[in-house]
Each structure stands twice: as structure tokens, then as C-alpha cells.
Amino acid sequence: MMGPAHSLSGAAAWLGLGAAAAAAGHTMPWPVLVVGALITAGAALAPDLDHKSATISRAFGPVSKTLCEVVDKLSYAVYKATKGAGDPRRTGGHRTLTHTWLWAVLIGAGCSVAAITGGRWAVLAILFVHLVLAVEGLLWRAARVSSDVLVWLLGATSAWILAGVLDQPGNGSGWLFDAPGQEYMWLGLPIVLGALVHDIGDALTVSGCPILWPIPMGRKRWYPLGPPKFMRFRAGSWVEIKVLMPVFMILGGVGAAAALNVI
Hints:
Layout: H1 3-23, H2 30-43, H3 55-59, H4 62-82, H5 101-117, H6 119-138, H7 140-145, H8 148-167, H9 188-203, H10 238-259
């Protein structure tokens, strides 16, 4: 999938989770619903850190470009070192390490640990990175014609404001994990969800996605999981743009209404 579809599917997934939580009697505070949806929308772009032409590679200028090159080489090295007898030969690391459940869990857990040990500045950094990515994904048309500095300022300002809202009593800094010292521990959850939604989206395309690594399947350790081939589509095709993106928007709207007990 392309960046906009990934971000829309990520936001829709978090809003759907909010709807499920409301149905179970554990309604999310509205700031958690909003911030979580934005983080998930941004995190749904992050697995493409292994692709130097992806949206995320442009999001933070030379820093993200360099990081994408490093992650691509790291992913390729891990692939070569762990591939099974049935895995094909590759020339790069795209859709390998960063497109697995293990990567999603490790990145999410790392962000949760950073949030509870690094204090407010760590929280702001996590929000800033993912809000910039959310802007790049959800508002891609505007982001493409705007300067990077404007997008960064929007991300920084939004992070500061939203962190202030979450800090208010009952607004969600201690949502789900309410023991002393566990404020913002939940920030890792939308990051894990965004990465997994990205992987599932890529699994629907022609190439599939090795979500289950390092669990072997037959002679392959990097098995490209996906539906039957006749159900797959090419990234950026009309199926993604004309069908899936509108569906994600509708599902997100329904999820938000249900999460807020509007319907």
C-alpha cells in the first residue's frame, strides 16, 4: 500500500478499537481516542523505514533519509543471516525485518519504556515524530506542497497542545495503566497497532508480507503472507485508491461515533 492508505487504515483501526472499548464498558477519554488515532496513523508509515523512497524517508529531511538507508542495510543483513532454504535471493531489505510482528512489538515496547522513564520530553518526542508522520500520511496533498519546516512546526505545536490536554486529570495520561509512574505507558499500543496494520495492508498486495518472521513456514522463514493471489492488488492501484481508502474513511467515522457513544 501507499502512505495515505496506510495512515487511513491505521487511524481507522484505533477508532475501531475505541468503539470496541466503549462496547465493553471501558470508554476511552476523548483525548486518548484522538491522540491514539493520530499516533496510529503516523506509526502505520514507520515500517517503511527500510525503503529510501517511502514517505517516511522524506518526513525529516536528511535525518530520515539517512536512517532509512541504515535500516535498509540492517534489514538486508538480518534477512541474509536468517533466510531459509526456500527464501529467494534479495538485493535489499524492503519488506523484511521492519514488516514483522516482532519489530512492531519491540518498537511499541521501546516507546512505552521511553515514555515512562524519559519524562515529558520523551512523550513530546514520541508525539512529535508520529504527528509529523500523520500529517504526511493523512494530509499528503497539503504536505507535498508545503515546506518541511511548516509540517515540523505543525507537529511540534500539536504535540505540545495535545500533551497538555492529556496531562489534565481524567484526560488519559494514565489510561489503561494507572499505577504511579505508569503515565503514558499506553503510548506504545497505537504504535504496535499502526505497524501491524501496515503489515496487513502490505500482505494484501501482490508481494505479500513476512509478518510471521521468525516463525518458519515450510522451507521459508520469510514467508510472504497474504490472501490468494487473485485477491491481491498492486500498491497504488485503483483498488487501493477508489475502494479501500473510502472504506477506511467510513469505518473510521463509524468507529469514532461508536467510541464516543454517539451511536
